[in-house]
Write a structure and sequence with these properties.
The protein has seven helices and seven strands; from the N terminus they run E-E-H-E-H-E-H-E-H-H-E-H-E-H. By secondary structure, the chain is of the alpha/beta class.
Length: 191
């Protein structure tokens, strides 16, 4: 069987066969009720919808964790009934987004397209932001909330979670830190 998909473990790509992955999930009966596809960015894998369908066919719920840069695939999977829940990262305000996310500013329009689609209510979703002391300010949080509401045609998102940054060896930049609980409380009020 040719590999249909790869899992990245450390710096190694491990081939995963869609058929065997779905078959392995079939043996979870009673132990798990759903499967979460997370990253890196799972929508970069062209075979993702096929794997999700295999999992859905086994009766499992499917959750997608995404950065929103592939709105076309997001819409196609939602409209095909492959998604039960989507958790999308909102990295920062539009002005700070490229720096915070480490991405080309031209991808911001794709993020906006995904935000608008999710706010339209076609699939259950949440937004989440990992707050980093050095990258987020009260003004940026407020601008981020207003931006998402504007992209959603004036609708506020139903669920938006702020989570504190946790330092790890695997982060891209050294010297970052989490905000205080007091700061997080102020930020939550700004959304």
């Amino acid at each position: 069987n040719p590999a249909d998909h790869h899992v990245v473990e450390g710096h190694h790509r491990i081939p995963v066969f869609i058929e065997s992955t779905a078959a392995d999930a079939g043996h979870l009966g009673g132990f798990a009720y759903g499967v979460c596809f997370t990253g890196g960015e799972p929508t970069m894998q062209p075979e993702l919808p096929k794997l999700m369908k295999s999992i859905k066919d086994l009766g499992y719920a499917v959750k997608l964790d995404t950065n929103g840069t592939n709105p076309k695939m997001l819409k196609e999977m939602a409209e095909a009934g492959l998604l039960d829940y989507v958790a999308m990262d909102i990295k920062n305000s539009p002005d700070q987004y490229p720096e915070t996310a480490g991405m080309d500013a031209r991808l911001l329009s794709k993020v906006e397209e995904s935000v608008a689609y999710l706010i339209s209510g076609k699939v259950d979703y949440e937004f989440r932001t990992t707050v980093v002391e050095e990258l987020h300010t009260e003004q940026a949080i407020e601008a981020m909330g207003q931006w998402v509401q504007d992209v959603g045609n004036g609708q506020k998102p139903g669920k938006w979670f702020l989570q504190c940054y946790t330092d790890r060896d695997s982060v891209l930049f050294a010297g970052l830190s989490a905000p205080t609980a007091e700061t997080m409380g102020r930020y939550a009020q700004r959304l």
